[in-house]
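S.,

Sequence below, as promised.
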Amino acid sequence: EGCDPRAAVTAYKKLAGADGIGIFLGPWCGSPQSAVAPLLAANDRVAVLGSSAPRAVFSLSGSRMFSTQHSIEDEAEFLAAQ
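The prediction came back faster than expected:
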């Protein structure tokens, strides 16, 4: 997706529609995550993120986008406390 929301949406639509993919790894960057999240909710697909993400993408995705790391907000709070 190259950290480009439009490229991420185009790739998602091709993979979900034409190829019938239901589980995605990524997107890796924040703005593509926010762009793809509502599409997951609308199409009953799931994404696993290999990077931290804002808490909002979980809600935007209808609870279908999961991160393997702490949220960006939790990470920032921890670093600020250190």
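Residues 13 and 47 are 13 Å apart (CA to CA).

Coffee later?
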